[in-house]
Write a structure and sequence with these properties.
The protein is mainly beta. The longest helix has 15 residues. It has one domain: Jelly Rolls (Sandwich). Strands 1-4-5-11-6-9 form a 6-stranded antiparallel sheet. Strands 8-7-10 form a 3-stranded antiparallel sheet, with no helix packed on it. The protein is built from 1 helix and 11 strands.
Length: 129
């Protein structure tokens, strides 16, 4: 098992919904297993990935994800405008072309193609400066 960039991006937004603070905390929560990336994802209440996806095609995540929600729930909006809520105990598949946000603390185990996930992470790093 090869551990990649072990930074988890924690996205906090203000009550008005604008990006207020972005911090990074060390964790061994992400690794590549061959061509598959596995990650333990944690978002605090109020996190919204949408502002960080600006600049990707359609302003949406271009990587597919498969996972299971361990704690909380997460809203997903797809390119066609369809929305869904995925709750603790449920499994999911999100095709390329989505964004996510949470109204409560959230935790999941997620699998994604390493190459596509790496491209999204690089984009996020550039957006974070």
């Amino acid at each position: 098992m090869r551990t990649n960039d072990s930074k988890i991006l924690t996205i906090l937004r203000s009550e008005r919904g604008s990006l207020q603070e972005i911090s990074r905390s060390s964790s061994s929560g992400r690794a590549d297993w061959g061509d598959m990336n596995v990650a333990r994802i944690r978002f605090p209440k109020g996190a919204d990935a949408t502002p960080l996806l600006v600049g990707l095609p359609g302003g949406l995540c271009s990587c597919p994800h498969w996972g299971t929600v361990l704690k909380g729930s997460i809203h997903v909006r797809y390119a066609d405008g369809t929305e869904e809520l995925v709750r603790a105990g449920e499994v999911y598949y999100w095709p390329p072309g989505h964004t996510v946000w949470v109204d409560e603390d959230y935790e999941a185990i997620e699998f994604s193609p390493s190459r596509a996930m790496g491209e999204v992470i690089e984009h996020l790093k550039k957006r974070l400066g």
